[in-house]
Amino acid sequence: MNFSLRDELKVLVQNTRGPCVSIFMPTHRAGVETSQNPIKLTNLLKQADRQLQELGVRGAEARELLGQVDELVKDPFFWRKQADGLAVFISPEIFRTYQLPLIPDELVVVTNRFHLKPLLRLFSVDGRFYILALSQKDVRLFQCTRYGISEVSLNNTPRSIAEALKYDDLSNKQQFHTRVAGHSGNTDSMFRGHGTGVDDPKIDILRYFLKINDGVRNVLKDDQAPLILAAVDYLLPLYREANTHTNLLEEGITGNPDGLSPQELHKQAWPLVEPYFRKVQETAGSKLMDFTGTGLSSNDIEEIIAAAYFGRIDTLFVATGLHRWGLFAPEINTVQIHEQPEPGDEDLLDYAALQTYLHRGAVYTVKPEEIPGEGPAAALFRY
Predict the structure, then answer these.
(1) pTM score
(2) What is the CATH code for 291-381?
């Protein structure tokens, strides 16, 4: 799913005109199996058409709504570069497609709101991270979860040191020293050569990395998910000098990453980042429990739903595999919970998680037995 994730989710949540069609499907990345991707989407569109007509949408209107996807199905360029999964959202006002770094179940949901539950793993704190694979000949940025990986476009960022320095002239090179000193305060001395000279190869690499850092910053924006570097040993400390991402992990993947597939990078990265997630989750759970009985934490689902909507939740733990169906009316601040889903209902646990994320709270999706306290959710309030 491309960036900014928070902005994109906000667009989907704020869509108020139905019917809303949500389609999720796993996709093949390469090989002859890729030919199955458009066939699979075509079959899911047939399901969506049936569901629309079951809701009372006339056949012509259903075909017009779903017709927005026809060109996509026929576009060979679109199918050549896929991730682990694909999400498609269609309404009278919105048509969005997202490549997902996870493998979703095949699913078609047609209701008055977009179904966002399969995306929950993407904005949960416990398992979302990035890999930046660096060499002097190539650079790749990946968005990852514990379940999968997909490449993220760095837009106009140079892909090699040759491209980065192609149009630089001597005056830019001289101005570089001023930028470096303002960036880290000590980098200039790090690259002094013997006598009066300067070690130009290292200077050129750092200039290249500063451009990459700018590109990464423009893509990640305020996302605080951890970033793991993959590069040969001597490049890792050089990139750290250029880096401004606030959550760059100390340990990286060493060796030339150019020959590694995304899946190989993911396999090497997860053991490095898993202890970080475990520690962060344990700290958050302990903090929540410390506020038990103070009014600043709760396991009450009705209180949590309202607090999430109004942006009061700092940290939310929500159980995977559980549902609480119902409705929330923010205008009168009331929550209705039903034993079984009724027309117009939504999963209030997913709603709380989504609203918490949109208000820049931390969301942890955990097993039911890992919820602090009792119940399907636990929240630490900001106030």
Answers:
(1) 0.72
(2) 3.30.1330.30
